[in-house]
Structures are given as structure tokens and as C-alpha cells.
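Lab notebook page, bench 4
Experiment: in silico fold of construct C2
Operator: M.H.
Input chain length: 443 residues
Purpose: comparison with the prior construct
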Amino acid sequence: MTKRVAVIGAGVSGLSSIKCCLDEHLEPICFERSNDIGGLWKFTETSKDGMTRVYKSLVTNVCKEMSCYSDFPFQEDYPNFMKHEKFWNYLQEFAEHFDLLKYIQFKTTVCSITKRPDFSETGQWDVVTETEGRQDRAVFDAVMVCTGHFLNPRLPLESFPGIHKFKGQILHSQEYKIPAGFQGKRVLVIGLGNTGGDIAVELSRTAAQVLLSTRTGTWVINRSSDGGYPLNMMVTRRHYNFVAQVLPSCILTWIQERRLNKRFDHANYGLNITKGKKPKKIVNDELPTCILCGTVTIKTSVKEFTETSAVFEDGTVEENIDVVIFTTGYTFSFPFFEEPLKTLCTKKIFLYKLVFPSNLEKTTLAMIGFISLTGSILAATELQARWATRIFKGLCKIPPPEKLMAEAMKKEQLIERKTFPTWFDSNRKKQKGGGETHNLKIK
């Protein structure tokens, strides 16, 4: 009898999972709470539905040559780097080409996912869903959670003394869509990741002044290489990967710093790079020019707020701030799980190869797309989904849960003693050994 697989979410990870289920002759049923595919890539004018969506000006950071599904290349007339509309069109074309849409139930929320009483023997799950006020319950042989890690805005107001006195507008980048409404205003953007850099650059064209606050600084890289070809197409080579594996980290960091500073000296631009650590990078073609022209001013971290101003760690004060935008990332959660699975799945240390919870008697639950990487999320989720579906089918095996839990507990103890980096550390991809290490390294 064909095994039934519940796929939660119809974004990039969900589409990969549906396709891989079909490739292995499994029966997928995908539950998507919105009315369309694409997840965060489906642009909407507002964020009133609580879902994280792209802002209107977003452009991909990975070129099309390095970021398509393995069996469905981008059309030739698509640009190397594309706006979100083009990328979403590609996802739609992929879904239509492989006839995936008929396996998706839209406007359907997953209420609960629980083990069946005979789970230790069958590995089956009870899944309760709700569609337009009507609840349904169904039994599945396996579950693939594809909800992503851009679910809940992280808004750490408690870390900023005086923020509740501030009389200006406060918002998270999840709420940012277009620069309209910021004309002539003094805007403070907190957080220098890809989103913070993009928003600062875009607002610099309409706002009176943009202040960009960063705790650690960053390295800024272009989408194009020195010869004009897409950068990630030129540096994604086995040769470079081998060099990165064999060189001491201090030498590798020195080489990277030297190469990146050839374009412009980051210290002169106030980017406050901490020497001796692996560079944190963002992709932005315009930020250095905006800093040079004064439309974006780099600031240190905020020490405190007053009613109309911000005091920074370096002692400087910026008056008459109208808007504060937090680009401080997201947290994820799994409200449809019951304890202890809900808590354990939020700790990636308990996910074998960042996919399978280590404490389950049966390997019938896979977390797809809960990874941070510098390359294509499409390629990574496809590899994860391929492996997961083959395990569901019994074609691949993983170690028994007793061994996985022993390894997980050992690593958790190392983390508590601060001798092992946590999963959310950007350097985690450099770890060696261990079951939970990210083995889908795509740069």
C-alpha cells in the first residue's frame, strides 16, 4: 500500500518535498495556510495575515545558474539575478510542469500533529487541519514540516533601554514593503544583514537620512565577480572548497579579508570589522556608494533611546529620529506539535543531519529547509527531501535513536560548557564530525 505523507507548507521546501514524494511513489498531501504557493516569495502589499513576505524591491542573492531545481532549469531569458516576481514565476512553472498543485490544499491550517497510539510500531501520525472553519482529521505514514524559519519576527525591544519612551514609529522589517511613506524622514535601521542593507539603501533614495546601526559590522560583497560573471558561479568550485577545508581558519580569514578590502577598505567605511574572526558577509551592490555619498551613515550599536533620539555605544547622539526599523531576524516555532516534541524540534542539536528528530522511535518525521547556508535553498531542500523520502520508503537507514540521543546529549553538554558552537552560529557549517553536522554544504 502506498504510504501517505503530510507536507506542511507549500513554499520552496514544500514544493521540493511534494516532488520528491512523487519520485519515490509516495502519496503527498500538502497543507498551505495561504491561498497560493511560494511562501515568503509571494509578494503582498501588506503583512496583515502575519506571514513573512518579501519586500517589493528584493532581488535574489544567488544567481540562476546556481539556484535552480536539479531537473528544472530557469528559462534562458531570465536574468542572472532576478526580482521576486521572476523567482515566484519560476516556482509556479515548476509546480505546473510536475503537476504538483493538485496535491496542495490551500487556506488550510495545521492544528495538531500527534503520534498515534501504535506509533512505536507503525510510525504513523494523526494530523488535524482546519479549512474555513471546518476541521478534518487524517492518518499519515510520515510528515514533512516545511514551514521555514522566517515565521515570527524577532523584536528584542527589551535589549534597548528607553525604547518605550520613543515617540516615533517602530516596526520590524517583516512590515516593510515599499519606501513610500518615509519621504523626508530620519530613519534608523537596526541590524546589518542582507535585509538591513537592502532597506537602508532603498530608503536612502527617499528619506532625509538613513542611519544603519550594527554591533559587529560586516563584509560587503557584490553580486558580480571581478570579471563580470556572477560571483557565486565563479567561487563555487571544488578547488575553493578543498582549500577552505585544509587551510587553518586564521589564514583563510586573512585571505578573505585581504581580497574583500581590495575593493574598498571596510574600516574606512565604519563597518567595524572584528579582526581574527570568520567574516560575516552580506550581498549588496550599492551600500558602499551610499555610505560614500552620505545618504547612509553607519553607526555602532544603540545604547539607549530617548523620546526623539538614539544614543550609541561610541557616545554619539542622533536627534529627531522619526522611524526605527528592526531588521533583527526571526524565530520559528511548531505550535502544531505537542510536548516534548515541540521543544526538541526547536533545538537543532536534536536533529540528525538537521532533518530528523533524534528521539523518535520511527524516522517518519522530517524537518525540511531549517538550515542557514550561503548557497541555494532550492538545491539544499531538494537534497534533504530526496534523502528523507528514501528513508520513509525504507531505501536508506539512519542510526538507531539511542545512538543519536547519546550523541545529541554529548554535544549539548559541550555547548553548556561553551566548548562547542551552537547551531545558529554562522560558523557552524565548519564543524567536523557528529551526526547533526550540516552535510548538505552548498556554497
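Observations: The chain has two domains: 4-151+332-430, 155-328. The radius of gyration is 23 Å.
Next step: discuss at group meeting.
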